[in-house]
């Protein structure tokens, strides 16, 4: 005859517990195996949900090409308002073609030249769009038809971005 044995009760081991603590997206699924208690499953999946909420609620890091909302159309007849305070470092002006060419030639050197520096870039708009988070961005004409410099904005700049049109020449002050 064959003997029927009851499934053994499994404890959550030390390594599985560490895995669930630090990588719940992967290791919590091991709790669905036979033998783990309902309490272990509730705690494990509760931690998974909490981890997802923490990751989803974390603010996204700022990009090196974050731009301020100071955009002036050079084709417009009214001049842009003057800044209230003068920046500590003089504002360097570049064209979008210069920025694109610098990145095509040597990305590391271009990062040293442009990243974390306040610069003004002038160029013709080839695309105005939003990313998957709903934040607007501009693409200016560069040296490559398909890979122009991108300039990201915050959602609070949507009203200003809505007034722009493709083909317009703009000056963008960014960091």
Automatic annotation (TrEMBL):
It holds the Pfam family tRNA_anti-like. InterPro entries: Protein_unknown_function_OB. Keywords: Membrane, Transmembrane, Transmembrane helix. The chain crosses the membrane at residues 12-32, 38-58. Residues 60-83 are annotated as: Disordered. This is Uncharacterized protein.
